[in-house]
Amino acid sequence: MPATIRDVARLAGVSEATVSRALRDLRHVAPETVEAVREAADRLGFVPSRNAAALATGRPKVVGVVTPLLTGWFYAAVLEGVDAALRRAGWATSLVNLAEPGGARRRLTAAELRAGQASAHVVIGFGLDADEQQVLRDVRAPLVSVGGRFAGVRGISIPEADAARLAVGHLLALGHRRIAHVGAVLDPGVLESVLGARREAWTTMLAEAGVAAPSWWFASGGLSIDGSRAAALQLLARPDRPTAVFAATDETAFGVLLAAQRLGLRVPEDLSVAGLDDHPYSAGYGLTTVRQSPAEQGARAADLLLADLGARRGAVSTAPAPVELVVRSSTAPPAA
Hints:
With about 325 residues, the chain is of the alpha/beta class. It folds into 3 domains: about 5-50, lambda repressor-like DNA-binding domains (434 Repressor (Amino-terminal Domain), Orthogonal Bundle); about 60-155 and about 295-310, 3-Layer(aba) Sandwich (Rossmann fold); about 160-290, Rossmann fold, CATH 3.40.50.2300. It has helices at about 5-10, 15-25, 30-45, 50-55, 75-90, 110-115, 130-140, 160-175, 190-210, 225-235, 250-260, 280-285, 295-310; strands at about 60-65, 90-95, 120-125, 145, 155, 180-185, 220, 245, 270-275, 290, 325. Helix 7 (about 130-140) links the parallel strand 3 and strand 4. The longest helix is centred in the middle third of the chain and has 19 residues, at about 190-210. The chain is elongated and about 80 Å long. Mean pLDDT is about 85; it is low at about 50-55.
């Protein structure tokens, strides 16, 4: 027989009402009582009913996650972090996946958000246009964005310009001056603001080093590996090619590495390549990059919403998520 709330109350030495309040993390239950109840529930394998909790509070213990894509590593990692934090608190995740078969994407609607019956939402901000951002605000439920901020909404993200400066600064410190950038130019929106911040940091760092970058040092590959490979092939086939490339993302960097291989360029002897993200495959490529942690950002976003909903004690930081330069074998001083 599954354990009941009565079993938990007996083991913890409290009333059934106290068990109910403790497992809902209501503020007027003493921390030591909450700990005793949770320990008893864990020992007995007791799982509280989310439906019962919703009836008691008038609010489903569900947080919706809106994502324009599931297959990208960043989106999946954010979702993993959100879900892990919610499960620890006894909450569930409701997914609103806007991706369609074949790579298309449907538009976000208020009806779809309300159908999920979520008490709050995490939105992975890449790729949502201004109208869709307004839909999210109009639902009037607690909301946090991850991976790009938009007006009127709290966000958990990395300091994009600082992250790019770490990568470009590393290449400059190695002695490179002919540093190209492979990225993308997209329609205005959250994703373009992220890419624009990285691109502007590259331009600024070169200017501060006394380097005037010609326009052809920037190549747009549309962010896909194939597109970045095609853009890098043109960039690196020139006789006055750069000695280093700062790629807007690690997946962009993978395309640059493939282009270098196709042209017979050795990395890092003939060409240094640095990315930004620390994709799960980056270590296998030996890619120097700037590490961010999407799962950590997702968990922090979930904790922020749980605090809003009274389901979590303590303050949650909204400061930019940390980034870290990770030096691997794809960068070295330029050839003499």
